[in-house]
Amino acid sequence: xxxxxxxxxxxxxxxxxxxHLEEAFAIFYSESQKLEAQQxxxxxxxxxxxxxxxxxxxxxxxxxxAIPAGVIxxxxxxxxxxxxxxxxFLPHLSQGQSFELPSEWQASIAPGEYLIGSNExxxxxxxxxxxxxxxDEGIRSYIQIQDITANISLHQQTQRENRxxxxxxxxAGIAHQFRTPLATALLYSSHxxxxxxxxxxxxxxxxxxxxxxxxxxxxxxxMLRFISxxxxxxxxxxxxxxxxxxxxxIQALFESKAVGLEMHCDVPxxxxxxxxxxxxxxxLVAILENALAVSNAKDKVTLCATVETKKLIISIEDQGPGIxxxxxxxxxxxxxxxxxxxxxxxxxxxxxxxxxxxxxIAVENTKHGAIFSITLPIxxxx
Length: 382
Prior knowledge:
Blueprint: H1 14-66, E1 70-75, E2 78-82, E3 106-107, E4 113-116, H2 119-122, E5 128-137, E6 140-147, H3 149-169, H4 171-192, H5 199-227, E7 235-238, H6 239-256, E8 260-265, E9 272-275, H7 279-293, E10 300-308, E11 311-317, H8 346-356, E12 360-366, E13 369-377
Parallel strand pairs: 8-10
Antiparallel strand pairs: 1-2, 1-6, 3-4, 4-5, 5-6, 7-9, 10-11, 11-13, 12-13
Helix pairs in contact: 4-5, 6-7, 7-8
């Protein structure tokens, strides 16, 4: 039997293994130093950023404390922080509590505006108007509360001064408007004093005198409405109801003149305006009367109402001859009229009424007549 030779492993080289191990340790040490240097640089950067963040927070705190408006930061509607200025509006506000506006704050005309102060307080100190702006970003919300009482007062004062200036300029127009009906009334009253006037004629003179006095009363009321400022009492009213009231008030007059009145009201019944009752419908009626006055039989006047970005948009378009270039810039000024029977106060009063409710009104000519564009702020919409 032949014996197979056994395989013998080669002898290990201690010097070569030691060299490999030394190289591995050298690489490890080098990489460890690099990592340590990176960690040191990262820590320095963290310390620098922390210092800058702390300084930024200090500057932000100083800025927030200096802002006269109240600022609140919410997370899931829980108060995270607020500046001291907000305590003048919400003295009991504290961190950690759920945020909600006080129930006694009354909604004002424009969205996001509130009246602060109960009826009992109004006699002792002026009522404030505040504006609340809320910005939601995910679970966080930012709220700003600002006292705009002075701004509103200044706006109202400016409007009043402008109207007073206009009243001064139109003094001659007032005298002219009063002179004719007053002279006619005096003439009829003198006839009534004549003993030789037959009873039948006396009754007719009395009726004519009454008509002239009613015209004078209407003119006086129009003058008072023109010079008036802010709405006296505002309530939540359906926008659709306001448009329906305006249509009901003037529909018969349109029918009597064989002029069509088309209504396109694409407004939800839940859309609410904070307005003085009757004032906005009266303003719409004044504009519709103006459109009717320039319309011929079988013409049509179109009223369209829509809702866009918390605003009610109303347009009234006629098929008349359009507005003359000589009068379009002064159309809303008092006594600006081309009608022999009109006072020229209707559109002026309509403009004042709409602007007093924080709205706007404008007019422009179209290819087939003129169009009035009106905007009013929506107080509530579902």
